[in-house]
């Protein structure tokens, strides 16, 4: 591993010269070159399943902006698709499954996909991207949290109320746990294979953990993310790879998330970074947390808001600048440029003291 990457160093809370920056959905619809590619290929899934195209799209935002990490262009629903659920995207409607999982029989029949055989297109995209990035940029691998992936598998599509999976959780908790266990096993192997293919950090997206009560969150979401962390930290090949856990609306559970042994926590914009740092900053790095709607403002306002986020985290390493959730598709790419420019311009001051100390300790000054 090239530990001189600013992003990897910050994840390990080692001194950096400036705050690293990347953002969720950085390869996506707000980029005209992405929309042109989608038009040409004829759909999102087709782009994910073609490794050359997925690698090219992963790199599109890096050609425009001085980002500190690339995230592999794929989706959290590749695992259930490989389990045979029949993933498709209806125009402007988000993901759907032809065969949702509703009972114990369906859970029992689910196979655990083999990453190289059944999801080889993701591993090939990782290998191509890592080769392109060389020692310039680290590549992030990812999966969804078992709970978040299961919401789509059980509901059959996105949901506002999660009525079907929550009824299952209460009426048939063991059926749901059987499903979560299978998705967990698949996710462990999937992340391990991405690491073998060359990713230098992994992130688990728990978009819907925040829809649960505290007790249910610990039992049905965090418990399974904990298993993923334990699996990766137990193996020689994967244990040094930083793990980021991101539960949207999970600010109240930061202490338990940090106790999983993850390296970093993704923070959404509803959480105060200074408060999060005071609570768990000695244990983990923090990634976030500009409100994605700030990018609708004028560039000078965006730059002021970026300064606010940097000041909120304050001095020292352990911060990775990001949005609090994915970028919206109708954001002007020039506004993204303004955000990144502000991170590069205003963040070095928060690292100067630590860098001087580090250089002195290493005898480089
Ligand atoms: O961040 C990145 O640039 C990497 C790629 C990435 C995508 N999806 C590409 C994508 C990642 C990390 C994801 C994760 C993902 N996918 C999550 C968790 C993170 C989050 O956003 O909460 C979830 C819940 C999904 C499932 C999913 N995929 C949904 C709900 C949708 C439709 C919503 C939407 O934004 O359109 C997708 C489609 C999707 N995944 C797109 C992209 C770029 C849009 C596809 C298109 O229409 O071109």
From TrEMBL:
Enzyme class, UniProt record, top EC level: lyase
Keyword presence, Transmembrane: no
Chief localisation class: cytoplasm
Pfam assignment, any one: URO-D
Biological process per Gene Ontology, one example term: protoporphyrinogen IX biosynthetic process from glutamate
Residue span(s) of domain Uroporphyrinogen decarboxylase (URO-D): 20-29, 140-156
EC number in record: 4.1.1.37
InterPro entries assigned to the protein according to its UniProt record, in alphabetical order: UROD/MetE-like_sf (IPR038071), Uroporphyrinogen_deCO2ase_HemE (IPR006361), Uroporphyrinogen_deCOase (IPR000257)
Catalytic activity: uroporphyrinogen III + 4 H(+) = coproporphyrinogen III + 4 CO2
Family (UniProt): Belongs to the uroporphyrinogen decarboxylase family.
Assembly information from the UniProt record: Homodimer.
Protein name, entry field: Uroporphyrinogen decarboxylase
Organism: Candidatus Berkiella aquae
């Amino acid at each position: 591993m090239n530990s001189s990457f600013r992003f990897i160093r910050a994840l390990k809370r080692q001194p950096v010269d400036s705050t690293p920056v990347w953002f969720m959905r950085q390869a996506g619809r707000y980029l005209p070159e992405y929309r042109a590619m989608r038009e040409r290929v004829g759909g999102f899934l087709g782009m994910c399943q073609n490794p050359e195209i997925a690698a090219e799209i992963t790199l599109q935002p890096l050609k425009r902006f001085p980002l500190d990490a690339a995230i592999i262009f794929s989706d959290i629903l590749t695992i259930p698709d490989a389990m045979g659920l029949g993933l498709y995207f209806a125009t402007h409607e988000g993901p759907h499954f032809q065969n949702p999982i509703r009972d114990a029989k369906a859970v029992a029949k689910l196979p655990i996909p083999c990453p190289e055989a059944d999801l080889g297109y993701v591993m090939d995209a990782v290998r191509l991207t890592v080769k392109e990035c060389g020692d310039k940029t680290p590549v992030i691998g990812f999966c969804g949290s078992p709970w978040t992936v299961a919401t789509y598998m059980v509901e059959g599509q996105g949901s506002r109320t999660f009525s079907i999976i929550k009824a299952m959780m209460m009426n048939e908790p063991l059926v749901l746990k059987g499903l979560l266990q299978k998705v967990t096993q698949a996710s462990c192997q999937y992340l391990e294979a991405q690491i073998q293919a060359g990713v230098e950090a992994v992130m688990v997206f728990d978009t819907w953990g925040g829809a649960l009560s505290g007790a249910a969150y610990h039992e049905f979401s965090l418990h399974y993310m904990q298993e993923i962390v334990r699996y990766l930290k137990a193996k020689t090949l994967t244990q040094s790879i930083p793990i980021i856990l991101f539960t949207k609306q999970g600010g109240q559970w930061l202490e338990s998330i940090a106790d999983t042994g993850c390296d970093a926590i993704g923070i959404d914009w509803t959480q105060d970074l200074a408060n999060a740092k005071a609570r768990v900053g000695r244990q983990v790095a923090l990634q976030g947390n500009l409100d994605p709607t700030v990018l609708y403002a004028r560039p000078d306002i965006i730059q002021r808001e970026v300064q606010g986020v940097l000041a909120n985290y304050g001095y020292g390493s352990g911060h990775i600048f990001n949005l609090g959730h994915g970028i919206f598709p109708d954001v002007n790419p020039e506004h993204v440029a303004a955000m990144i420019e502000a991170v590069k311009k205003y963040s070095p001051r928060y690292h100067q003291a630590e860098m001087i100390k580090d250089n002195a300790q290493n005898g480089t000054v």
